[in-house]
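ASSEMBLY PREDICTION REQUEST
Request ID: AP-0331
Submitted by: J.K., bench scientist
Number of chains: two
Total residues: 742
Priority: normal
Notes: Please return the full assembly, not individual chains.
Input sequences:
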Amino acid sequence: MSTEYVIKGARILGGDPADILVRDGVIAEIGPDLAAEGVEVVEAAGLIALPGLVDLHTHLREPGREDAETVESGTKAAAMGGFTAVHAMANTDPVADSAGVVEQVWRLGREAGYCDVQPVGAVTVGLKGERLAELGAMADSAAGVRVFSDDGHCVSDAVVMRRALEYVKAFDGVVAQHAQEPRLTEGSQMNEGEMSAALGMRGWPAVAEEAIIARDVLLAQHVGSRLHVCHVSTAGSVEIIRWAKSKGCRVTAEVTPHHLLLSDELAASYDPIFKVNPPLRTADDVTALRHALADGTIDIVATDHAPHPVEAKETEWAVAAMGMIGLETALAVVQEAMVETGLLDWAGVAERMSFAPARIGRLSGQGRPLEAGSPANITLYDPSPRRAVDPAAMTSKSRNTPYTGMELPGRVVATFLRGRATVLEGKLQ
Amino acid sequence: MKRHLISAADLTRDDALLVLDTAEELARATEGSMKKLPTLRGRTVVNLFFEDSTRTRISFEAAAKRLSADVINFSAKGSSVSKGESLKDTALTLEAMGADGVVIRHGASGAPHRLANWVRGSVVNAGDGTHEHPTQALLDAFTMRRRLGDLEGRKVTIVGDILHSRVARSNVLLLNTLGAEVTVVAPPTLLPVAVDTWPAEVSYDLDAVLPKSDVVMMLRVQHERMNASYFPTVREYSRRYGLDGERMARLSDSAIVMHPGPMNRGVEIAAEVADSVRSTIVEQVANGVSARMAVLYLLLGGSEPAIGKEVSQ
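STATUS: Completed
Returned structure:
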């Protein structure tokens, strides 16, 4: 018999306070002053209740780079960040390009039990962009893969991309493209512009992202397939996606928390903690991304949580690894960038960090409304405290957060995965 | 002055003038019979060179030795990038040896910035990737001042691979600080996309700029650019952007021609230009030692006055 909880006085999606009764893994009842006999009471006055967050873009690093993160450590970090499901990217070692590997990752997630781990399958064998991986076998496996991505690498060959888009229609899959024209970004280090010119670093032009997105939305439209665009980072990409949606293209897009908050001036420190793919762009791009997320042009926030060991970042910029961890700061950054600025309310946050990513990933048990009968995937969030980010306090195995010392709002107080508390009073359970 | 010299932008106008004046005094002091000053006796300067650059290394070595510093040459080529010791571990090693100053040449832009986080001593950037080379800019400014006097309002034209040139970046910044008017000239492929944000004029047409230039600084064309579609052929580059005798004839009588070396004779500069009386190329080498002496002296704070009187820091 699992523990029953009554969550007292939480503001559901930021609305009026109500009680939530959790029993047998589902939300049994929502209403005022629910009876609390024999059940554990979670005092939630002043807290926001959100549906458990869903990340469409997480690097858990297992198998292969267990020194940076494991499925267990990464899903603990996810729970601490308010997530109840993460999509584990395929660029592991070995690559998740076969039913065997995706089932392994899926099983590790179930064994850890902190949050649902939905593996993403590679589009091409070994992420090489040449031959399609066995997409159908991964879809049919126990892991039930629906999202396919060569993330970290662009499926740059137009024919391979076209075939992938077409092929996954057979099982309602989606191709999540890492849009980066490879020839235009050989050796690229940071956004190409005023900062790269001053800092003497090889530029990473916005057009390298935008050209691939433009091509892909046209391909997706042509073959009638679903396309998802990973980590959109430029104002120009937003314009292309907006145009594609206006033409009826079935395209969805994500933005990372860091691209909503940080810009390329940070590279002036030459501290590779700010080195990421796609690179931090200009303040104007940040503004465009925020508005695109608010108006729905960009559908979701996805963390691109990318753990790296300390030595991969304590180097010269040019040889440092690209990526930032983000699971434990995602909600705080979205509050700072979107809620505090008045661009989104909490219902809007729930749509972009839970409902919509679950729909894109075809996760039936996640991203459900907070109502009686839904699986009890719930995040309780206190938006009021502000505190400086301390990497030492992270649950992730890695420490490569770009927000060290930055003051961010909010705190995840509790996370429930199908009625089980993975986090209570801000502590992992 | 700041504790490190990593970018030419670290120098205020007063700082830059202090370095140039100090270099002048040090040059005069060591031109005579006394080649060596006791100023940095007991101080240790490490030359940390991750790239081959004999001329820059020996220039710094000579500068430090003329100030009586102990010099350790640490050639670490290839040891940082993908194998062997990391830059951080190298820095900790230097720290343990008690380096008062570290002169670093590195293939990665920003490496001196990183190093400065890990060592207590002063860091002097001797060229980092495609970023900066501030002592080159100082020696160039010193050379210009010796030939032309005050740089205020002087027109300096820098020609060549601006995109990848650390010499160009440092010179644009320093010359702007000193009040000179800089024009960069290159094919559009060899200019940064945001070059319009620099404190410099931009031109694609060398012939149009030459007659009004007081200084023409030619940059070396790196071999790796020659096969990467930055320009069609070396011959075409040379025709459009090389400085030959005919073009030199269009310069004003007092104008000088500079080159940071090493030169590709016949590519960016013709032999008759390099060897002409306008050329300062050999002077630049000599002046490099004086400028670097001034930088080391001012950063490492000599225990005794540099040249018989206190130089303010």
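REVIEWER COMMENTS: Chain A is about 30% helix and 20% strand.
SIGN-OFF: pending second reviewer
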